[in-house]
Structures are given as C-alpha cells and as structure tokens.
Design a protein that fits this description.
Shape: elongated
Helix content: under 10%
Order of helices and strands: EEEEEEEEEEEE
Strand content: over 45%
Radius of gyration: 14 Å
Number of helices: 0
Structural class: mainly beta
Largest sheet: 8 strands, mixed
C-alpha cells in the first residue's frame, strides 16, 4: 500500500513562493506517474500538474502554467511542486497523488492520495 506524505504548505503573501514536497513509500516510485491536485474552500478538486516516471515530461493546468514547476527525485522517492508568483486564488489544500504505474508495457491505474498540505495566499 503506497503512502504519500506532503509537506511545505503554509501562509504566504501574494507574489511569494513556496515549494511543496511529497515523499512516497510502499511502491516502486520510479514506475509511478505522479501528480498534484488542489481543492479550494467550497470548490471541487482541481488537477494541477502531472509528471511522468522519469521526469522527462510534465503537464500543467492552464491556471498554473508558467508559475508552478513539478519535479521529482526518484532516488529520494520525492516529488516537488515549486510555486512562484502565488495568487490568492491559489489558496487551497494541495494533494499529492500517485496517478498510476507504468512498467514499460502495462499501465496500472491505481490512484492513491496523500492527506494534503494547506497553502494560504494572503492578498
């Protein structure tokens, strides 16, 4: 059973920056496609970014493109989300997710979530 633990959230002023981390255990991290999601107060879950197994390809929601950078360190079983130029609308609980596993020939869509870390951007 994979475990995902996020950290790095906090309170920041608009225009500031934060870097979130997600440490994974219980899976072969280098085979996992990973992503970040967020949920703002009173709103639904929003996909933020995805990174493939070796980090060579990344995808971003339009709302964060150019401001957020997703990355990973497979030696540390850790994924990151660097956030700059933060806006009040980025205020949300951010969740790390294992979106599935690619072993080179087969895709396993077994989604797993962390508990989340709160990011609050004050204007």
């Amino acid at each position: 059973q994979v475990q995902l633990v996020e950290s790095g959230g906090g309170l920041v002023q608009a225009g500031g920056s934060l870097t979130l981390s997600c440490v994974a255990s219980g899976s072969i991290f280098s085979l996992d496609v990973m992503g970040w999601y967020r949920q703002a107060p009173g709103k639904g879950l929003e996909w933020v970014a995805t990174i493939v197994t070796d980090g060579s390809v990344t995808y971003y929601a339009d709302s964060v493109k150019g401001r957020f950078t997703i990355s990973r360190d497979n030696f540390k079983n850790t994924m990151y989300l660097q956030m700059i130029s933060l806006k009040s609308e980025d205020t949300a609980r951010y969740y790390c997710a294992k979106e599935g596993r690619w072993d080179g020939s087969t895709w396993y869509g077994d989604f797993s979530w962390g508990q989340g870390t709160q990011v609050t951007v004050s204007s």
